Amino acid sequence: MDRRQLGVERQMADLMRRQKIGERSWNESTKMWEIAGPAILTSVAQFSIGFVTVAFVGHLGGLELAAVSVVQNVIEGFVYGIMLGMGSALETLCGQAVGARQFNMLGIYMQRSFIITIITALLLTPVYVFTSPLLKLLHQSKSISELSGKYAIWVIPQLFAYALNFPIQKFLQAQSKIWVMTIISIVALAFHVLLSWVLVTKLRYGLLGAAIAGNISWWLVVLAQMVYVVSGFFPESWTGFSSLAFKSWASFIKLSLVSAVMLCLELWYYTLVILMVGWLKNPEIAIDAISICMNLQLWTLMITLGFNAAVSVRVSNELGAGRPTGAKFSVAVSVVTSTFFGILFTAAILAAKSYFPKMFTGKHEVIRETSKLGYFLAATILLNSIQPVLHGVAVGAGWQFSVALINIGCYYVFGLPFGALLGYKFKLGIEGIWSGMLAGCLLQTVILLLNVFRTNWHKEARQAEERIRSYGSSPLPQNERVGMALISEN
Predict the structure, then answer these.
(1) Pfam families given for it (predicted)?
(2) In which band, very low, low, confident or very high, does the pLDDT at 132 lie, cut at 50, 70 and 90?
(3) What is the DSSP string of 318-356?
(4) Which residue of 136, 196, 332, 362 is surrounded by the most CB atoms within 10 Å?
(5) In 10 A of CB 358, how many CB atoms?
(6) Cα–Cα distances in Å, from 330 out to 256, 314, 318, 319, 440?
(7) Cα–Cα dist 35/313, whole Å
(8) Which among 218, 75, 50 is positioned nearest to 150, based on CA atoms?
(9) DSSP H helices in 138-283
(10) What letter would DSSP give residue 477?
């Protein structure tokens, strides 16, 4: 009887443990989706503003479409990565400050980020002004370069909208106040469609009308979000403009720069892959094929970027609150959920690899080449369901410098040279170049996973508390609640 009773007690204990884990998983998943859901919708809505512009400009003519595409994919793609990276320092600082209940620091952090991103926008303005000669230097056609140069100057106001948009987004995300931001983005997208139709189609203002519509729509997003922030909905985290925003800059700028470098190394990797494909013999079909695949990858990436934002907020909140076990559990739930969606997308691509190219082109050669790349696209989507989540963990924990070094090693020291060797030396063409890219992504993902598994989360929680104190404008008192949380978890 004793043994039988002991066995029953063990079974009951195991059942209660599983129920507890199931309950924790459900609670964590709910918190994650509260951030990831609206973050996904916001990303899609804001991304679609540029997509709508291209759709309207495409009816003006091939030259106009090429000019806008070059500005969006080359100039704005280059600038967007830098601006988003410079604003990403807030993900670490604001998230950990919320966890530590130091809400008064959030507004000051955001104002510091405003100053840094506006200065960055001023420094990047010459890229827009000199777009035409830069494109000619890259051996683009004279007609496309000159028209792109005009359009780039007309959309400079969007550059400064980015400068304000990203800090506000991080401020709101850290406090899980995203639904208002999502609604603003969706309304702005609908307004942009109407305004583009009026200016481009009805009044026939051409590229100038497209630029004006984009400028107004982006500033509508920024001003609406700013009104929301300053209208009294955040009495603890927004107490008005403060001179403290001009203090304690050194560490803040360092984290902003490291965040920008980490993100840009990631984004420019794919740009370089496309350039490498363009250096192949007879590259037209290859570029069309890889562009179709990259566009599909970008849409699936919108989903994983939502998980990126969610895990960044959850990890930074938990570490700031002194709950290292909670941070570790958030990572596990986010990785599993995002990987599940990655598997679904991968299966869909493999099942439709002979059909999805027909949605983008009617050219038989491009359809055949794109279908061949279906396996590579599926593998890339699977890796990209894990990788952005790990990047979100890195941002939430403040590991930007380490990840930047990993990116350099995996992408630029290993991935690109390996792809060039396969593509050019062994004459595997686009498949060889993409294989090198995949190898770099796989190596980076494995290294990041090992780092996450080996992390001492109690140490990270202590470092988060120290970061909150050192990044403040004045010495902060010891956070007793964080200290008690760490003691209880030990």
Answers:
(1) MatE
(2) very high
(3) HHHTT-HHHHHHHHHHHHHHHHHHHHHHHHHHHHTTTTG
(4) 196
(5) 13
(6) 24, 7, 9, 11, 26
(7) 8
(8) 75
(9) 142-154, 156-174, 179-196, 206-230, 249-278
(10) P
**Is residue 299 within 8 Å of residue 359, measured between CB atoms?**
no
For 112, half-sphere exposure in the C-beta direction (CA atoms, 13 angstrom radius) is: 26
In whole angstroms, what is the distance from residue 299 CA to residue 412 CA? 25
pTM recorded for the entire structure: 0.77
Cα 406 to Cα 91, 104, 183, 391, 439: the distances in Å are: 20, 34, 37, 11, 14
C-beta neighbour count of 443 within 10 angstroms = 17
Residue (of 98, 99, 488) closest to 319 by Cα position: 99
* Model pLDDT, residue 323: 84
Q: What sign has the CA pseudo-torsion 135, 141, 146, 151? A: negative
- Angstrom CA distances, 91 to 113, 310, 424, 436, stand at 11, 10, 41, 31
Q: How many residues does the chain have?
A: 490
Distance CA 103, CA 20 (A): 31
The overall longest dimension of the chain from CA atoms, in Å, is 91
Structure tokens at 107: 């507004």
Which residues contact residue 313 at a Cβ distance below 8 angstroms, ignoring those fewer than 6 apart? 35, 91, 95, 173, 174, 176, 396
Distance CA 77, CA 267 (A): 8
Task: Give which of 166, 177, 175, 25 is closest to 96, Cα–Cα.
Answer: 175
Do 124 and 159 form a contact (C-beta atoms < 8 A)? yes
Q: Which residues 6+ apart lie within 8 Å of 177 measured at CB?
A: 233, 234
Q: Please report, for residues 54, 99, 399, 470, 476, the alpha-carbon distance to residue 395 in angstroms, rounded to integers and kept in the order given.
A: 32, 15, 6, 18, 23
Contact by Cβ (8 Å): 302, 36: no
d(CA 257, CA 85) in angstroms, rounded, equals 7
- Residue 427, sorted as left (phi over 0), alpha (psi -120 to 50) or beta, turns out to be left
342 touches 304 (CB < 8 A): yes
Query: How does DSSP assign 112-155, residue by residue?
Result: HHHHHHHHHHHHHHHHHHTHHHHHHHTT--HHHHHHHHHHHHHT
Q: Considering Cα of 426, then 428, then 429, then 431, what sign does the dihedral take?
A: negative
Question: Above pLDDT 70, what percent of the chain?
Answer: 88
What does the mean pLDDT of the chain come to?
A: 83
Domain segments of the chain: what residues? 34-247, 254-470
Are 461 and 319 contacting, i.e. CB atoms less than 8 angstroms apart? yes
Contact indicator for 324, 20 with CB cutoff of 8 Å: no
Q: Which long-range contacts (CB under 8 A, 24 or more apart) does 275-279 make?
A: 276/416, 276/419, 276/420, 276/423, 276/433, 277/430, 277/433
The gap between the terminal CA atoms of the chain, to the nearest Å, is: 37
